[in-house]
């Protein structure tokens, strides 16, 4: 494989000029830079990442910390981040650190402490998490996706407002018995985002002077089904509408309703949050977010910070309400 000396000779410049042209470290006239880059392509020269790091002081690597990868939301974010980093010529080092796990402590004490990265993207950290102090202590550009965090640039959706809005939507349809499924189970580490959605639900129900019913469940279809089944089994007390903390919870509730012989939407309405790939298949009304785009946006913010720009405190990602066949006025209510 050709080296920098061969590239310099073909371009008619010194090795130092060729190096500056290929690493971007130092001024090189545009026509000279182009000539060097053409020579490098013709010779099949690829700059060594370690050599580039010595010149620029950068590793061209970003550390990504996620609590898990098996769920749709995190998989979408990872794809968006990886796709965007490639356009910037950056590598991704993925760390999976489940809350309250021993691996999480080892991650911060050993792997991230080596600082072999130019910046960090962390997903779904909690505001009271000690990880926040650790990240700030690394003194590296950091962007978090999810909850609003003190002292760290964050990107996410307004979960309280969304929980309130979708509950108000059901109230406007005429529902008065509305249940929320998906608060954090007592045995699990707190999930601020879904608990904020429950808070929005509670605000809407209090404003309407209606009783609220909140049920815990992990954020999966199977757990949504398990939590919804006993709620729907009592024909006299069951709600006419369910707010799912996420689409997977709402889909689980729809499956439970089907197995119990409850007609959707005339006897039960269900609404979710996320815009999961399965939402359209189940005709689920939902508030769509785009975690893949959030990953791309987080990379853009991080790259600007790596280049010296100041971080912003909070960026709210866009969402939209998508109406499908899982919601309607209850059978006893006629609107209009």
Radius of gyration: 25 Å
| pLDDT averaged residue by residue | 88
Strand order of the largest sheet: 2-1-3-4-5-11
Share of residues in helices: 40-55%
Description:
The chain is α/β, with parallel strands linked by helices. The protein is built from twelve helices and twelve strands. It has helices at residues 4-11, 15-23, 30-43, 49-56, 72-87, 102-111, 131-137, 159-172, 192-207, 221-233, 247-259, 291-306; strands at residues 61-66, 91-96, 119-123, 142-145, 153-156, 178-183, 213-216, 241-244, 269-274, 285-288, 314-316, 320-322. The strands form two sheets. The protein has a six-stranded parallel β-sheet with strand order 2-1-3-4-5-11, with helices on both faces. A six-stranded mixed β-sheet has the order 7-6-8-9-10-12, with helices on both faces. β1, α5 and β2 (91-96) form a beta-alpha-beta unit. α1 (4-11) crosses α3 (30-43) and α5 crosses α12 (291-306). The protein is elongated, with a radius of gyration of 25 Å. The termini are far apart.
